[in-house]
């Protein structure tokens, strides 16, 4: 079993502002792992730190056994890691096709075309919209475009920041199902989510962050039925 991500004692933040206070977390090949936690606890910062866009202080980040802490984003992309930010994840004034092309500008055209086609196989809703500007898409379609674009470089490890935030329940369900389908195709998935119940329902394991640290980790099935966690993090209502 390959350990795709192995993080220990990770500290970092934004310039001199420390946000992550020593995170230990791992993701094995083929796993779907969800990080949950209250607003402002450092979920987005954690993903940005892994992807080389927040300030690394110390600790270890290993990708498939290789120490990559503090590496530049382009080197991480070359290793097969992709990141879908929560906001500003498409270029609104560009067409769907142009957005997808931006995902693989260094690829030779035939390969780029086949990668785009393969991404669209996962997100068929985008095919009829190829020439429309991304600004004209619904929130759910925009999220699909952002994920499709991340797929163009053929990643095997996908980092997603709240992919279902602000979407209708129908789109939330669809997006999580498609992400699960990507996992079934061999892509390892790490999600940070507010919409915790839905994402956990597809996850193998979960982590709970508080104040820039892991305060709990367990199989997702256990987290989903833990009464205390339900009260504090998942809300009492069933989705
Ligand atoms: N660019 C930034 N510069 C300084 N502090 C930031 C920046 N972005 C986020 N923060 C702070 O980092 C903390 C964690 O934020 P974030 O990682 O976005 O939390 P979450 O994703 O769990 O809601 C918050 O206190 C937030 O205000
Ligand atoms: Mg966030």
From TrEMBL:
Keyword Cytoplasm: no
CDD domains: ABC_TM1139_LivF_branched
GO biological process: L-amino acid transport
Residue ranges annotated for the ABC transporter domain, each copy included: 2-236
Keywords tagged on the record: Amino-acid transport, ATP-binding, Nucleotide-binding, Transport
GO molecular function: ATP binding; ATP hydrolysis activity; branched-chain amino acid transmembrane transporter activity
InterPro entries: AAA+_ATPase, ABC_transporter-like_ATP-bd, ABC_transporter-like_CS, BCAA_Transport_ATP-bd_LivF, P-loop_NTPase
Similarity remark: Belongs to the ABC transporter superfamily.
Name assigned to this protein: ABC transporter domain-containing protein
Source species: Marine Group III euryarchaeote CG-Bathy1
């Amino acid at each position: 079993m390959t350990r795709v991500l192995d993080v220990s004692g990770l500290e970092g933040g934004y310039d001199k502002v420390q946000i992550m206070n020593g995170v230990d977390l791992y993701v094995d090949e083929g796993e779907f792992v969800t990080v949950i936690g209250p607003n402002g606890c450092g979920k987005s910062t954690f993903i940005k730190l892994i992807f080389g866009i927040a300030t690394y202080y110390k600790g270890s980040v290993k990708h498939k056994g290789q120490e990559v802490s503090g590496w530049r984003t382009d080197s991480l992309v070359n290793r097969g890691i992709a990141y879908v930010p929560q906001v500003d994840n498409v270029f609104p004034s560009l067409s769907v096709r142009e957005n997808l092309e931006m995902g693989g500008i260094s690829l030779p055209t035939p390969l780029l075309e086949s990668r785009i086609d393969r991404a669209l196989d996962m997100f068929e809703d985008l095919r009829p919209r190829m020439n429309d500007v991304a600004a004209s898409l619904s929130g759910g379609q925009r999220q699909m475009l952002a994920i499709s674009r991340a797929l163009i470089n053929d990643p095997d490890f996908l980092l997603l920041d709240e992919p279902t935030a602000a979407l209708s329940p129908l789109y939330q369900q669809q997006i999580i199902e498609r992400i699960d389908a990507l996992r079934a195709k061999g892509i390892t998935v790490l999600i940070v989510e507010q919409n915790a119940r839905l994402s956990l329902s597809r996850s193998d394991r979960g982590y709970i962050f508080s104040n820039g640290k892991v305060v709990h980790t367990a199989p997702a099935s256990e987290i989903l039925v833990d009464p205390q966690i339900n009260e504090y993090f998942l809300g009492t209502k069933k989705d």
